[in-house]
């Protein structure tokens, strides 16, 4: 006899918090631990009635803001039609095709095929496999202080020993070079299958390379006949003022890795490359990389609606203006370094203790802020692209107050 379990526990906030800590696997011992009731624009509202300004965009997911009506409508419409039907690539699904066509229309010609997946980490793993399969080589070159995800493959691309020492052995034949160091490009050789790099090293504290670096990296990869993949999982979908950060420079990667904001709040990633390259997964080793839920029609419908919203609302046009407002307001009052581009900024405080105090003070003032994985001295400023001028002024005032500047 089956038994249907129905939740009958208290809805008291202390009980819910206890259940959250007991029943939901924790990855941090300093989680924010408030219950969200709704989200709209740049704000999260809690069950207690507090309204927090999201300076993180859900760590790069909610670029167009929370609660975007066309996205919600697209989710409802597709959910009413059908959900999952089969593993990826078996059935013709309109949401996938329409989204791929729109993305490809906004990218350089060689990037003409989309492989939709579930997450950024999975997308990175797919790039590793495709790089090795297409070239017949094994070596992967990655930049130190890069962050590409947390699956075993993506974890293997981390240079910091602390975060990966508990998961050894990782995948072999990984070589690290320094980001934006042209001399290190000599380490790319005929043994190299793939170079994978972020265009902006976000978790290192928003580090950027000079334009010539990208030209030389592209030429080196061409000379050695290896592939170049750019990880735009955090920088894509308008975050830096162009749809993808690489579009501000004079080079085209062989693979473009997208995630986070791609699904407009739904889990979705994509490996975008040339059709001939991606065919290695179906022709060289059939079913060489497969996914059950990748490119889920509801997620693709959400992503399509979100990208259309981004374009129709001309959100890219105001990103640089909003960046300058942050720069003018913060630099006017403090000498602290403000790194980055668009609405991906790092406000340097110089010490971890100062930053932790500032984050706590901002939380008390109902602003959600954080640091960076490999740069615990800088404040992450990455709000939704829809943030308004008055909200930027308010955020800057509270940052200055919280930092005692």
Name the descriptors.
Aspartate Aminotransferase, domain 2; Aspartate Aminotransferase, domain 1; disordered N terminus; seven-stranded mixed sheet; 2 domains
Describe it.
There is one protein chain. A hairpin with a 5-residue loop joins β8 and β9. The chain has a 7-stranded mixed β-sheet with strand order 4-12-11-10-7-5-6, with helices on both faces. The protein has a 4-stranded mixed β-sheet with strand order 1-2-3-15. Strands 13-14-16 form a 3-stranded antiparallel β-sheet. It has 14 helices and 16 strands. α3 runs antiparallel to α11, α4 packs parallel to α11 and α12 packs parallel to α14. With 405 residues, the chain is an alpha/beta fold. The longest helix is centred in the last third of the chain and has 19 residues. 37% of the residues lie in helices and 17% in strands. The protein folds into 2 domains: 126 residues, Aspartate Aminotransferase, domain 1; 243 residues, Aspartate Aminotransferase, domain 2 (3-Layer(aba) Sandwich).
